[in-house]
Design a protein that fits this description.
- The chain has a domain of 177 residues: 2-Layer Sandwich (Gyrase A, domain 2).
- It is mainly beta and 367 residues long.
- It is globular.
- The protein is 11% helix and 28% strand.
């Protein structure tokens, strides 16, 4: 039927990508490669690696200001234990010196994604162990309330960090499969967090600064880029971020490729939403996945969750979000290799095609 099935236990990290891996006894450890071939039988275009990259001078690093991302500070002796029970990933990762950033989701009790977050271990020691929590700016207040609900008597302090800014740093010289070149910091003391993006090396590095600090004075050989180019890059490689791509209470973490983004541990123990997530994982079959798509032409007036149809009119999934002709759609894997259609609210119909991202694991195969 052309259904893509993904191997059990595909939680392992990529060698050389600076990602933490934990093997589960009896499980299959799958190595993520920085460049992989499309699964057999999936005839898709590999447009993602030459689309969406802004044009800059060769050898330059580009800093993108991310106004859609906010930071909270969580600090205190119970920080690790507190977060361990409400996120999908294992806080033990941050105890290792080489891992100071961690990607995870917070789920509701039905196992659906509420928030996608990145945690950065604080450099400072005053005030005890702590992390910065990066989240979508539009749900900052909601996640603050969510954290306080589960705080109970934990010895932690939670506070918004409106005085800080988040930047993404990408290299314009890297090619698919090439290791990301780490820029030199001219003023490392000004970088409150400076870590490889834990989701995939194709997302470069993350930088946290005081809002009044210019990143060009912190990173050597760097120039500022347009935030819209950052989003085009994300959509081109198929990486979701924020509430538009991962609607709270709607998206399922495994359908959203949380395993491939190193965002979940299946051996850490209990957390909110774990039961359904673990059961789905152990069945070994994910029938729908969030995939990068290219539309035949940009479309305006797309409603959230616009239906995707095959050429014969069969339901094939739902469109999530995008910019221009690039986007993300939740696609039934049985129809992933087909040309699909969608219709906007102003009755415009366009076709779209999905691609298999290079950063997906090689063991994602077609039966």
């Amino acid at each position: 039927m052309g259904v893509l099935c993904f191997a059990r236990g595909a939680l392992a990290s990529a060698s050389g990508l600076g990602v933490y891996a934990r093997k589960k006894p009896g499980g299959l450890c799958v190595t993520l490669l920085s460049s992989v071939s499309a699964p057999a039988g999936i005839r898709v275009r590999r447009y993602s690696q030459d689309t969406g990259n802004p044009k800059h001078s060769p050898g330059q690093f580009v800093c993108y200001y991310l106004p859609h991302r906010s930071l909270l500070k969580i600090q205190g002796q119970d920080t690790s234990a507190f977060l361990q029970g409400i996120i999908t990933n294992d806080m033990a990762v941050l105890d290792e010196p080489e891992h100071r950033a961690l990607y995870a989701h917070m789920l509701n009790v039905q196992g659906r994604t509420l928030y996608d977050i990145i945690l950065y271990r604080l450099k400072e020691t005053e005030g005890g162990y702590g992390v910065f929590l990066e989240c979508d700016n539009t749900i900052k207040d909601s996640i603050l309330k969510h954290l306080k609900v589960y705080k109970i008597r934990r010895k932690v302090n939670i506070s918004p960090c409106s005085e800080l800014s988040v930047w993404a740093v990408l290299s314009q010289q890297n090619k698919p499969g090439q290791e990301f070149r780490k820029p030199e910091l001219s003023s490392p003391d000004k970088a409150l967090a400076w870590e490889a993006d834990p989701r995939t090396q194709q997302m470069g590095r993350r930088l946290v600064l005081q809002s009044d600090v210019d990143p060009l004075k912190v990173i050597a050989s760097c120039q500022k880029g347009d935030t819209e180019d950052y989003h085009r890059h994300r959509y081109a490689i198929g990486l979701p971020e924020g509430v538009k791509d991962l609607p709270p209470g709607v998206a399922f973490p495994l359908e959203s490729n949380l395993v491939y983004m190193q965002g979940i541990s299946f051996s850490k123990g209990c957390y909110i939403g774990q039961e359904l997530t673990a059961r789905t994982h152990h069945t070994g079959v994910i029938r729908k996945r969030l995939m990068p798509v290219r539309l035949s032409s940009p479309v305006e007036h797309l409603e959230e969750g616009t239906a995707l149809l095959t050429q014969s009119g069969k339901p094939a999934g739902k469109h999530r979000a995008g910019t221009g002709e690039l986007g993300l759609s939740l696609i039934r894997m049985a129809h992933a290799k087909e040309v699909l259609t969608l219709r906007s609210s102003d009755d415009t119909t366009v076709t779209l095609e999905a691609s298999v991202p290079d950063w997906w694991p090689e063991d994602a195969k077609c039966n």
